[in-house]
Amino acid sequence: MRILLSGGTGLIGRALCRRWLQEGHELLVWSRRPEQVPRLCGAAVRGVASLEELGDIELHAVINLAGAPIAERRWTRRRKALLLDSRIHLTERLVEWLAGLSRRPPVLISGSAVGWYGDGGERLLHETDAPQSSDFASQLCIAWEESAQRAQELGIRVVLVRTGLVLARNGGFLARLLPPFRLGLGGRIGSGRQWMPWIHLHDQVALVDFLLRHPSASGPYNACSPHPVRNAEFTRCLAQTLHRPAPLPLPAAVLRVGFGEMSGLLLGGQHVLPERLQTEGFQFCFAELPVALADLLVGNNAER
After folding, report:
1. Residues 221-265: pLDDT tens digits?
2. Which residues of 174-218 form beta strands (DSSP E)?
3. d(CA 41, CA 13)
4. d(Cα 64, Cα 58) in Å, to the nearest integer?
5. DSSP label at 86?
6. Residue 174 burial by CB count (10 A; 0-12/13-18/19+): exposed, middle or buried?
């Protein structure tokens, strides 16, 4: 297959490129820095700065993962504008370009996040549920999905992947936690009761490939382990895996002062299950958190 990716140089995009290159697919990555694409994604991957460089190309799939990191810094007005532009406006530009192709790809798989639901508290959330709050992260994901769904009017199958916290050996959420936890300075966040929907990078890549290859798959899918945990349990499991104590909780008040509105990402959560994926037959390799963390952190295991 010939596959175009946006956001291909990110954590998930790089892992998808590794898998699909091994399978012999032709990969193109739309990037602001196309000269870096071969180094980050694989020597055989072509980077393009503009979609117009591709001409009237025939594509078999488009994977839309682009977006500035949402939890990298405080949500100032300028930062919010960047987050919106890097997701919604980029997706709108992508769909507009797809409309001009004479041979449109049959499928668009577009990124989203479990933040679409907002802070769900204790409620068990499925793909059919409505958003539970109207915070910025929820509004961002809702607008992102709406932009991608416009490709349906072009006759393209649209799949929306609502991803949880991706666990990987190098990069992402887990990599930011490891330094304090390895020093024995980790701890729960706030009350520790908030739910943390998580997923191993290996399963994230596998489910995107699964959805790509199943022509009946469309609409939203929760991309997270079938066994979500609360923050306190995640903290305990990570500390045990590293054989370190985790005695230093991070108070909610400190987070609110330090991160402002963005603190809601850490103090809230979603009790989310991957109901549609399981119903359609997807099998998780790393469904339990202790097994996932051991695979990533114990011994000489390579990043998956």
Report:
1. 999 999 999 999 999 999 999 999 999 888 888 778 777 877 777
2. 195-196, 198-200
3. 8
4. 17
5. I
6. buried
Token readout for 186 is 């980790």
Residue 258 to residue 24: CA distance in whole angstroms: 46
Phi, psi (degrees; rounded to nearest 5) at 269: -175, 180
For 62, phi then psi, to 5°, come to -125, 130
CB 238 within 8 A of CB 181: yes
Higher-pLDDT residue of 224, 133? 224
pLDDT in tens, 272-300: 999 999 999 999 999 999 999 999 998 65
Nearest Cα to Cα of residue 64 among 108, 10, 126, 122: 108
Q: Which residues contact 159 (CB under 8 A, 6 or more apart)?
A: 107, 108, 109, 110, 211, 212, 217, 218, 219, 221
| Angle 262-266-272 from CA coordinates, rounded to 5° | 115
CA angle, residues 146, 270, 80, in degrees to nearest 5: 50
Positive or negative, the CA dihedral 204, 209, 214, 218 is: positive
The pTM assigned to this predicted structure is 0.94
Tokens for 118, please give them.
């907002």
Nearest-Å Rg of the Cα atoms of the chain is 19
Task: Tell me the residue ranges of DSSP E strands in 152-241.
Answer: 157-163, 165-167, 195-196, 198-200, 219-223, 229-230
